[in-house]
From TrEMBL:
Keywords: Hydrolase, Protease. Residues 89-241 form the AAA+ ATPase domain. It holds the Pfam family AAA. SUPFAM superfamilies: P-loop containing nucleoside triphosphate hydrolases. This is Lon protease. SMART domains: AAA (SM00382). One of its GO terms (biological process) is proteolysis. Its EC number is 3.4.21.53. Residues 304-323 are annotated as: Disordered. GO terms for molecular function: ATP binding; ATP hydrolysis activity; ATP-dependent peptidase activity; serine-type endopeptidase activity.
Amino acid sequence: MQDRINFLNLRELIGIAKRRSPDRDEARKVKQWAGLLLEHADKRFGAQLTPSMEAELRTLSERHPNFGEVVDFLSAEMAFARAAGHGLSFARLLLVGPAGTGKTTFCLELAKLLGVPSQVASVNNVQTSAFLTGTERHWSNSEPGAVFQLLANSAYINPILVLDEIDKAHGHHQGYDPLNGLYTLLERRTAERFFDVALPGVHFDASRINWIATANSLEPVRAPLLSRFTVFRIRPLSQDEMREVIARMYGELLENNPAVSRQIESTLPDDVLDILCEQLETGRDMDRMLRVLIGRTLQAGESTVSTRSIPPPHAVGMPGAFGSERRHPIGFY
């Protein structure tokens, strides 16, 4: 197993740190950024497959049954990485599915399970690639981008960078591509010598980053970018799966609030579960609904949740009409 990986050219780093600049603010920034890189110059692999992690991956698949294929793929990738002597690296996944299917939540839970740093970069309405590759130094507010920030502040060579809603990147229809900087980062050979435009004299290895992008639709995503990802279509949860998720989230809510758990029954009645399965749209609604449901039950001086405690949608800020005959997609975010 590889213990330490030097991910940058120290000679370049020392050279730019010694370079004099007439701009004091710029010199201070360069020194600060160079110091961050130097502090974590020797990196190590995380996300190394162990028997306990294999069990946790199975649990993750059970918690997110509509992501079973994604977990199977990652498990195989990690088995290969273990045989090669390192951790999971340079995975490039694109998760496509309706809003509320749990894409971002899954990514965050995966990063926590793997034990590597992660960052979610919202691509919604970005207009340039500066959010990834940094801002040029002649600008007074120049800052490194997400790739630099994630690697410079981490002891790991293979963090997870989540690109949320890449189908909503602003500007495609206006002749420029705010995801232009992503193309070279998703090719291993060019990612090995990446540089942030805020610190252009220093190349470093970004080829071990694990990338997970999310989208509601593939239609706006350009073909050259799409070809760089392994694409998974995330379906909405079935009725039975939704029922299990609601029951689990209710149990976790009580587990995380022991004082509340001592005042209320530990399981939801079947008739309450039936109504929630029918009416809830997403997990964002689910969490809000369960909290209000418990609160209304306790307000009534009861210890068992009943259908009487289910609030109307406006009471929890939910869209739509509770009790509407229209069936909404099932899922969670």
